[in-house]
Amino acid sequence: xxxxxxRTRLLTPLCVLSLLLVSxxxxxxxxxxxxxxxxEAIFAAPGLLLSDPAGTLDRLRHLGVDxxxxxxxxxxxxxxxxxxxxxxxxDAGSPAAYPAAGWSGYDAVVRDAVARGIGLYLSLEGPAPLxxxxxxxxxxxxxxxxxxxxxEFGAFVLAVATRYSxxxxxxxxxxxxxxxxxxxxxxEPNYGVNLAPQAIDxxxxxxxxxLYRSLLDAAFSALQDTGHGHDTILIGELAPRGQxxxxxxxxxxxxVPLRFLRALYCVDSSFKRLSGAAAAARGCPADSAASAQFxxxxxxxxxxxxxxxxxxxxxxLPPNSVTPGEPDYADLAALPQLERTLDRLQRxxxxxxxxxxxxxxxxxxxxxxxxxxxxxxxxxAAYYLNWAEYISWRDQRVRxxxxxxxxxxxxxxxxxxxxFADGVPKRTYDAYRMPLYLPVNSAPGGxxxxxxxxxxxxxxxxxxxxxxxxxxIQWSPGRTGRFRTVMTVPxxxxxxxxxxxxxFGSSGAVRLTxxxxxxxxxIHSRTAGVTVT
Length: 533
Description:
- By secondary structure, the protein is an alpha/beta fold.
- The protein folds into two domains: 7-32 and 42-83 and 94-129 and 148-170 and 180-265 and 293-431, Glycosidases (TIM Barrel, Alpha-Beta Barrel), CATH 3.20.20; 437-532, Immunoglobulin-like (Sandwich), CATH 2.60.40.2470.
- It has helices spanning 46-51, 53-63, 74-77, 100-115, 150-163, 208-225, 257-264, 276-281, 288-291, 294-297, 300-303, 335-347, 378-394, 427-433, 458-465; strands spanning 7-8, 19-23, 27-28, 35-36, 40-45, 65-73, 119-125, 182-185, 199-200, 205-206, 232-238, 306-309, 357-359, 398-403, 436-437, 442-443, 449-454, 469-476, 484-491, 497-502, 508-515, 522-524, 528-532.
- The longest helix is centred in the middle third of the chain and has 18 residues, at 208-225.
- The protein is globular.
């Protein structure tokens, strides 16, 4: 499968009223050391993206976004999604079988993104139309997340992948739609609101991993059959946490991600292959002969391009905070544990694959506007976002950095956007556009400090002007004093990252300054304090 550079620009899922973008900055691989690719960044803005593709993509390009994650939800395209009866004669693998009006917004995004040089990332997601769900759901439904049919999902993926193969001309058009070459399968399958049931028998037997394994099989096959076999295809998209106390996750709660992964790959807590009744209960091969065929039977688990994770930190805590007593979490600080788990799962079947990690949802909810415990102030969120990106940049396995969302939802629910719902930018807006982080902010006089950062729009500016871009590192002797440039750094990394050491004459404040082409406008990063002793 194709491998992307380490940088992806801001990302936000399409399932909410905001953008999913992938953006990235390039940079050095360690403090002031030799260069390497940095994380590509992903961004998502679903409602905005579909309602105003051109305007939204223009704004994202101005932010420096490399790639936009666009969620394609099965039920929004499927005919008669609220009916229990499958439409008669439906050829679900054909794009023409789905209402044309449903495709129009997606087609516009695909065309407009290509016209602007922005990459696309199609996330193939539920919920399913009711006619493609299983029986036996608890009372109180309907539950479109209940046991979606792998065969029907595979047909849906076949239709989407055919439409965006680069060879499909919609009725009424004179030219084919542009191809898409970056995909993922389902969203947060370890959460019961997306895939159910999660577990049965007092939550002792995992079910959702078996369901997801079948969905992956069907989707992977459909992508191969439509000429996307060399594309980037991600699996996982796991939420970082779950419930571990009481009779959970049950049908609709969340399963901790590393437990989900062990069941997905049919191993126990010691990474030994399941057998007998324990295996059969989880849809796994029950004997050694069948176990030997597990990898060939489920190629997506072993041949995907990478693993997608949503490493949100716990609440409003700093990004390096490990959640105590939760060894199966996969938030940002626990990514090394996720990486080790993925490697052990591969080794359990004789594979030496080491999946790169794609961060495909990340952000901090802010107060204002949300008044809940897991929020932090916009200023603190700006600092944490830059710190989190630095952590991601340092991790050689991490290939992307994302931002969820662009704009807060109207009612403030999950207010992780860079912009308030009324259109006013948060402090996080500038922090995302031009990150700045100092791993150590104090030193004796004469000793330089590491200054790490990124100018996201620099790549587009370089394409527009043909000239190398430069960022100014500026210092002020006080938080309210006049800034002066102490170093000008050429942006040679294709994604805009840089990592240098700078001596400061005295304590004060540091910021980055850069000017868009043609002198409009000049922008600044957030400021960071430095102490010289």
